[in-house]
Specification:
By secondary structure, the chain is of the alpha+beta class. It contains 7 helices and 20 strands. The protein folds into 3 domains: 183 residues, Rossmann fold (3-Layer(aba) Sandwich); 58 residues, SH3 type barrels (Roll); 85 residues, Beta Barrel (Elongation Factor Tu (Ef-tu), domain 3). The N and C termini lie far apart (63 Å). One of its GO terms (molecular function) is tRNA binding. It holds the Pfam family tRNA_Me_trans. One of its GO terms (biological process) is tRNA wobble position uridine thiolation.
């Protein structure tokens, strides 16, 4: 097969490209330039998006012995990831830009261009596996090493995208084995730290970065009954579950700490309350998709597991498609679920699908 290897400049994508070549595929490496102003992306040994990462990727490609190119995806990245991030925060939601990048850049824009150029598949360094069922349907599954499993951020992939996706690291028992293999191959990135945080916020100050783009306007911090307990300098700076930085200035009547329960951008209000009020009995989203074959009867409840963060544990739940939404009810309440997050639904190790959370139902009713 002709395989386009997406090379971020990190150790995982370098080893993935090398394994694709070892498997006998005709491999070409490509690095995605996601900004025309390198200073707007985080620097350091992160394996994600900067000029130094591009150079690391090229050195690895040279050692593997494959052609290497840099493709400018900066305009698409700004529109589909950066602008989406700002819009979601402006709407009071908490987005996941890495998941959105996988959905709209690596497995939409990149795959689309790869297929147009005659490639059969795109290979990445994600820790996940693609299996084929008895009827020939492609399925997305967790990686062998659950500690490094990245199937959550790939939950947005469709059946068509899975048909052209390759994850050479999916069956690897540990990240240590990948690093050892990289060292044995002579890759300079063998000990390079993993990527982290948000690549397009240079200094890691998300609050300050958003304030420059959304604007900061003073608003009220209120309890669930509407009692004003403080003020803030911009609702966009808060996210559900946050405890630090509320600056209420005095203890609640019950003496217990307060957490952000809701962000209301329309009236620039932040709602706070006790920790138990963060417990969510149900969540739902109209923006849902299936990672491969859809359930036979999605309008009838089925048992599953749901994961709401990349590094969270999956929890037992039931799910159903009702009134145009994927509605998920965990067996026990979930804590700190924010609109804008992604809920990924699993059947065992298989990723069934996902939704962007639009609304939640609290397990603890607000006081009358």
């Amino acid at each position: 097969m002709r395989v386009l290897a997406a090379m971020s400049g990190g150790v995982d994508s370098a080893v993935a490209a090398a394994r694709a070549k070892d498997a006998g595929h005709d491999v070409v490496g490509v690095h995605l330039a996601l900004s025309r102003m390198p200073g707007t992306l985080r620097t350091g040994a992160r394996g994600c998006c900067t000029i130094e990462d591009s150079m690391d990727a090229q050195r690895a490609a040279n050692l593997i012995g494959i052609p290497y190119y840099v493709w400018d995806f900066s305009e698409r990245f700004k529109a589909d990831v950066v602008d989406d991030f700002v819009a979601e925060y402006s709407a009071g939601r908490t987005p996941n830009p890495c998941l959105r990048c996988n959905e709209r850049i690596k497995f939409a824009a990149l795959l689309e261009k790869a297929l147009a150029l005659g490639f059969d598949a795109v290979a990445t360094g994600h820790y996940a596996t693609v299996l084929t069922d008895a009827d020939g349907n492609r399925e997305l599954h967790r990686a062998a090493a659950w500690a490094k499993d990245q199937s959550y951020v790939l939950g947005v992939l469709t059946a068509e995208q899975l048909a052209h996706s390759m994850f050479p690291l999916g069956t690897t028992p540990s990240k240590a084995e990948v690093r050892a293999e990289a060292a044995a191959r002579g890759f300079s990135v063998a000990s390079k730290p993993d990527s982290h945080d948000i690549c397009f916020i240079p200094d890691g100050d998300t609050r300050g970065w958003l304030a420059e783009r959304v604007g900061a306007e003073q608003g009220e911090i209120v309890e669930r009954d509407g009692t004003v307990v403080g003020t803030h300098q911009g609702a966009h700076a808060f996210t559900v579950g946050q405890r630090r930085g509320l600056s209420i200035g005095h203890p609640a009547p019950d003496g217990r700490p307060r957490f952000v329960l809701e962000v209301r951008p329309k009236d620039n209000t932040v709602v706070v309350g006790p920790k138990e009020a963060l417990d969510i009995a149900q969540l739902a989203g109209s923006r849902f998709s299936w990672a491969g074959r859809a359930p036979e009867h999605p309008e009838s409840e089925w048992a599953c597991e749901v994961q709401i963060r990349a590094h969270a544990d999956p929890v037992p739940a039931t799910a159903v498609v009702r009134d145009g939404e994927l509605v998920i009810t965990p067996d026990a309440p979930l804590g700190g679920v924010a609109p804008g997050q992604s809920a990924v639904v699993y059947l065992g190790t298989r990723v069934l699908g996902q939704c962007t959370i639009d609304r939640t139902v609290s397990a603890v009713p607000a006081p009358a």
